[in-house]
Amino acid sequence: MSKKAFSDHKYFTNRELSWIAFNDRVLEEARDKENPLLERVKFLAITQSNLDEFFNVRVASLRKMVSVDYVKPDAAGMMPTQQLKAIGTDVHALVEKQYRTLSRSLLPQLAGKGVRLLAAGELSDEQLDFVDDYFHRELYPILTPLAVDVSRPFPFLADGSMNMAVRLIRAGEEDKKDRSFATVQIPDGVPRVLHLPGKNLDFILLEEIIRHYIGELFVGAQIRETAMFRVTRDMGLDVDEEDASDLMTEIQDQLKKRERGRVMRLEIEATMSKNLERYLLKQMHIDAEDVYAINGPIDLSFLSQLVKGVGDKIGERFPKQVPYLPHVFKEDSIFHIIRNQDVFLHHPYDSFLPVVEFIHQAAIDPQVLAVKMTLYRVSSKSPIIKYLKQAATNSKQVTVLVELKARFDEENNVHWAKELERAGCHVIYGLVGLKTHCKLALVVRREEDGIRRYMHMATGNYNDVTAHFYTDMGLFTANPEIGADASNIFNMLSGFSEPPYFHKLVISPMRIRDFLSERIDDEIAAAKAGRKAFIQMKMNSLSDPHMIRKLYEASAAGVHIHLIVRGICNLKVGIKGVSDNIEVHSIVGRFLEHSRIYHFYNDGDEQVFLSSADLMTRNLSRRVEVLFPILQDDIKEQIIHIYQLMWEDNAKTRILQPDASWQRIDRRGRTPLNVQEYLVAHAKDMADALLTSAVDPDAEVKPDISSRGPRHFAPLRPSQPLDDDEGDED
User: Fold this and answer.
1) Cα–Cα distance for residue pair 88/83, rounded to 1 Å
2) Between vectors from CA 262 to CA 261 and to CA 268, what angle results, nearest 5°?
3) Other CB atoms closer than 10 Å to residue 570's CB: what's the count?
4) pLDDT at 261
5) DSSP E strand stretches across 313-396
6) R_g of the chain computed on alpha carbons
7) In the prediction, which pLDDT does 419 show?
């Protein structure tokens, strides 16, 4: 098949517009009356943080392209200027929908439950006394009014900061036509949502309190207008790794520069006067299309604070979910368990504790010689970091790759890298031009029969916090061939090793794309021979043009393809002769779907692979990723079963339509199935089915049923220059 086959622009949707459609699916959860009320409020807050990062990264990237006259169209045929115009149209519509949801649905329903968000004029005498005391005792000392005149320039406003614009007349200027201007930044070191006294669950926003007392900050002046506004800046990092002799220092320098990035968006109160709006536009050096007039409180992320303030007082939350921890992990050494069988974990249904305990036991076990691990994102109080430091203290050889370029976690990762180095760990920062995104831990242990390697591989980060609400899959194994491959990966990351092949693991850049293409070719050959051919894949995003073309080729050959894509999907369905046999689902629910599954029918000898990689150009060409096979029959069957349950979900699933819209499943006449709630309810049964009894310690590792021989190695170097495929980090 020619490389140009299925390359026409008409076969692709635009990545940015597809992402906006995903955020609209999140917004639908805020509008879904079947969700508990406070959970709906949280979904609305999530759409705000999603949009903020979209402007920080994706819109910023497009604006940089425009600034250097980059005119190459994307796969859908849209040039950067066209994309920005389309983004503006769709995002303005999305923002309007956000605030309709807030004002017409959520706030009235909250009020019906006794939860009210009040303005200063709605306060009772008791509440007003409370606010008065709070302002003068807590707020007034930390507020700083910033005047703008010939001697005081317009102040720098940090990304995401909330600011109040003030137009006023100073004493002696009553006859002047122009009004003076000042700003007051809403402090971010205190809660934005304040719980008020009284019988109801009444709250007030910080900016409402400051607005009520604004005159006290400008004594002797007449306040003519106040209006809230907020800026979103370019938050990309421009790190020249080739010229950076010290990557950590370069990252730290760039973090400081990033704070002063160009303004990408200006959010203003819809009541702001045109004069004040024009003044801000001039100061921000932006155009009118970058302004978003907001009919309500700017920055809906405050809703998360509101939900925390309400707590459990009105119910209206998802039932508490406690991850299941099989008894075998409480009763036996984790190394004994893994030696005798592979162990599969499905978070957050299964506890993340065994992953943490894997590193803990390695730190204190006198037979453990070395611990090696990749860290992309970890929590701010990571127990894994604690145990890695303990392992180094206990004279283990500890090697940790900390990816300093993990977007928006750079500062956190720099901190942990320094902590680990101080504890005696050998810390490496990744490879030039590549992000290390694979999730891999290796423990080397001396046992009676010799050296044995124990591995954990996963689809998600080693983050004990997000493991409670991201759906991810992980595998413990002591398979010798996978162990050899894992050692080779760490040798490549820490040194100059380039092994000629891998036994079981597949890595990117480049090799994962080729490997999956080969598996798709096998299904194409089967379909053309009249045999059953079937592919199932689950991922966060699908945007790599080569992989989309390959899926089109398979569909055209008669291969039936089921895809579960949570976010971006640039593939089109329903194109006659091209994508007739492809169906795409998206699940947006209580947990963020994050696992990556690649399943091929393979003439009945089914192959299942898990991976840290999505089918995006950045994952396949510019990152160190790992795709690993599931070799144990019962685990393979379990994953296929889980996929089928997800495919049959009719509560949180939307199905991609030929016009690129997403529609819910018609549930009339169907038994309702919310797959996430089903997996919560059945976590114990599913986990125990894989760990039914203790295995003899001398038992052989279960045979490999899907071996295809060694996989040829492609050196770990970026396959193409960095382009606009950055952002939307997981």
Assistant:
1) 9
2) 115
3) 25
4) 81
5) 343-347, 368-375
6) 28
7) 86
The DSSP secondary-structure symbol of 8 reads S
User: Helix (H, G, I), strand (E, B), or coil: what is residue 141?
Assistant: helix
List phi, psi (to 5°) of 701.
-65, 140
Enumerate residues 6+ apart whose C-beta is below 8 A from 512: 506, 611, 613, 619, 620, 625, 627
* pTM metric for this prediction: 0.91
What's residue 711's pLDDT?
40
Residues 6+ apart with CB under 8 A from 421: 427
Q: Around Cβ 143, how many Cβ atoms within 10 Å?
A: 17
- Quick one: what percent of the chain has pLDDT higher than 90? 79
CA–CA separation, 493 and 499 (whole Å): 12
Q: How far apart are CA 456 and CA 448, in angstroms?
A: 22
What pLDDT does 2 receive? Answer: 53
Torsion sign, CA atoms 275, 280, 285, 290: negative
CA proximity to 644, closest of 484, 534, 497: 534
| Residues of the chain below pLDDT 70 | 1-4, 172, 174-178, 237-260, 405-410, 497, 692-730
Q: Decide: 209 and 125 in contact? Cβ < 8 Å.
A: no
Q: Do residues 40 and 32 lie in contact, with contact meaning Cβ atoms separated by under 8 Å?
A: yes
Q: Are 610 and 537 in contact (CB under 8 A)?
A: no
Nearest to 324 by CA among 357, 361, 354: 354
Write out pLDDT tens, residues 66-91: 999 999 999 999 999 999 999 999 99
Straight-line distance from the first to the last Cα atom of the chain, in angstroms, rounded to the nearest whole number: 34
Across the chain, mean pLDDT equals 90
- Residue with tokens 């819910």, as numbered in its chain: 664
Cα(542)–Cα(538) distance, integer angstroms? 9
Proportion of the chain in helix, strand, coil states, percent, rounded to 5: 40, 20, 40
Could you read off the pLDDT of 96-130 as tens digits, one per residue? 999 999 999 999 999 999 999 999 999 999 999 99
358: which 2 tokens? Answer: 């894997």
Q: Residue 48: CB partners within 8 Å, gap ≥ 6?
A: 98, 299, 300, 301, 303
Write down all domains in the chain, each with its CATH number in brackets.
9-310 (3.30.1840.10), 332-502 (3.30.870.10), 506-712 (3.30.870.10)
Closest by CA position to 88, among listed 298, 297, 292: 292
Residues carrying an active site annotation: 437
Q: To the nearest 10°, report the CA torsion of 683, 686, 690, 691.
A: 50
Please return the burial class of 563, using the count of CB atoms within 10 Å of its CB with bins 0-12, 13-18 and 19+: buried
